[in-house]
Amino acid sequence: MALIGSVFALVGRFAGRLLNSVISWATILLFGTVDNRRQSILSLVALGSLLWVALVVGVLLPYVGAFLIAAAPVPRQVGESVVRIVMLVAAVVLPLVVGATLLWLLPPDRRPRGLGMIRVVARGYPLTLALAVTIVVLAAVAVSRKVTSLAKHWESSHVPVVVKPGRYDEVLASLDDVLGRAGFELSVVPGPRGLTAPLALLEWAAGAGLGALVPDRLMLLTASDLEVLVYPSDVVISGTRPKVARARAAIATGLVHAPAYLTTTAEAQRVEDQIVESIHRPAAAGDRHVAFRELDHLLASLVVPFDEWETLYRQRLQAERELAGGATIVDDADAPQAPPKRGPSAIEWATGLLAILLLGADLALAVTERARGRR
User: Fold this and answer.
1) In angstroms, rounded to a whole number, what is the distance separating the alpha carbons of residues 285 and 78?
2) Residues 6+ away with beta carbon under 8 Å from 344
3) Ramachandran sector of residue 227 (left: φ over 0; alpha: ψ -120 to 50; beta: rest)
4) Is 75 left (phi over 0), alpha (psi -120 to 50) or beta?
5) Count of beta carbons in the 10 Å neighbourhood of residue 364
6) What's the distance, Cα to Cα, between the start and end of the chain in Å?
7) How far is 196 from 209, CA to CA, in rounded Å?
8) Model pLDDT for residues 4-50, shown as the tens digit of each residue
9) CA atoms within 13 A on the CB side of 150
10) Around 66, how many Cα atoms within 13 Å sit in the side-chain half-sphere?
11) Local structure of residue 258 (DSSP, 8 states)
């Protein structure tokens, strides 16, 4: 019995990790890559929506509720009737918590006020149901994409690209141009139906108040050996390792002038605006030197995550390089070419043939000696 209990405990831990990974994949497919704090909150919201569906089914169907009560770690002193009441209260309150949490995740300038805030929180009921359905569908899509990538020996990489409001098409065109100059011939097509259909459902449930959290468009730049999925807050690159590395370098260095941010925090984005302004503002060389010195002082004391600080420092160096007349590091002209294939030389042919003859002679001698020994 102890062995069986250990096996069930191991399976339970594995199932928990798998569920956490699947929910994480689904939220990334839904919202793109966000900072760690928001990612954790969105994962909890996704898990809460699934829990709410289980609670509603448990309240409406007594035998399902009995199964949930039996599976829950409830102390023996707590009666079944108390647990059912708690389930009912949680089924009523949880969607309001989901709506309030998503409202809090909105940027302060986009949050509704007064009655609009109450309406948004009340939309938590249809939103939680739509989110649960969306998470289940996207979880299946995420697993399918992972399996497909493994079968193709592909890998994925994320580049934070936060599109400025109303500028998605411009950023998409900039990405196509940047990757084209890096040697990729891509076609622009709508995102996979398995992603766009759940997003449409969730956008309908979210309404105007929370619609900013849900991507309203999802386009794909695709080639035979590369796919670039463009979110309003993330770019997902999938392909072979060399192709992904080159596409990532092209995006990181060539998208500075696009109407998008490569950082996610408000403090870092303000510095990005200053860097872009320093490039486009006509000024004498001395004035630009002063502007870059001011940027250096600002970066020296800027309190942002280190990966965002590195991105800003790279953009600052790139801006100075461009103003000095330098080009981007990724260019179609210097695209890596596959080394020419050559056949074996005459010496290699002769060496191989000699090795085969020696191996055959050795085998013949061994057979002859064995035959003599038997006689």
Assistant:
1) 76
2) 352
3) beta
4) beta
5) 10
6) 65
7) 20
8) 444 444 444 544 555 555 556 556 656 655 566 666 777 777 778 88
9) 6
10) 3
11) S
Query: Which residue's entry shows tokens 């089914």?
Result: 57
Locate 80 and state its tokens.
Answer: 């079944």
pTM for the structure as a whole:
0.63
In the block, tokens 């160096």 appear at 317
The whole-angstrom separation of Cα 266 and Cα 146 is 32
Strands (E), the chain: 155-159, 162-163, 187-190, 219-223, 226-231, 234-239, 260-261
Query: Coil, helix or strand for 302?
Result: coil
Q: Which two tokens stand for residue 247?
A: 């596409």
Mind giving me the DSSP string for 32-97? ----HHHHHHHHHHHHHHHHHHHHHHHHHSHHHHHHHHHHS---TTS-HHHHHHHHHHHHHHHHHH
Inter-residue contact 123 to 209 (CB < 8 Å): yes
Q: From the CB of residue 149, how many other CB atoms can be counted at a distance below 10 Å?
A: 15
**What's the Rg (C-alpha) of the chain?**
29
Sequence-ordered list of residues with C-beta below 8 angstroms from that of 127, at least 6 positions apart, any chain: 95, 98, 99, 102, 202, 205, 206, 210
The predicted structure's pLDDT at residue 212: 56
For residue 244, count other CB atoms closer than 10 A to its CB.
20
Question: What is the DSSP secondary structure assignment for residue 183, as one 8-state letter?
Answer: T
Residue type, position 277, single letter: E
Place of tokens 């141009």: 177
Encoded tokens for 279: 């490039």
Q: Do you know the residue count of the chain?
A: 375
Could you tell me the pLDDT band of residue 187, with boundaries at 50, 70 and 90?
very high
Give the SS3 label for residue 219.
strand
Buried b (16+ CB within 10 A) or exposed e, 294-310: ebeeeeeebebeeebbe
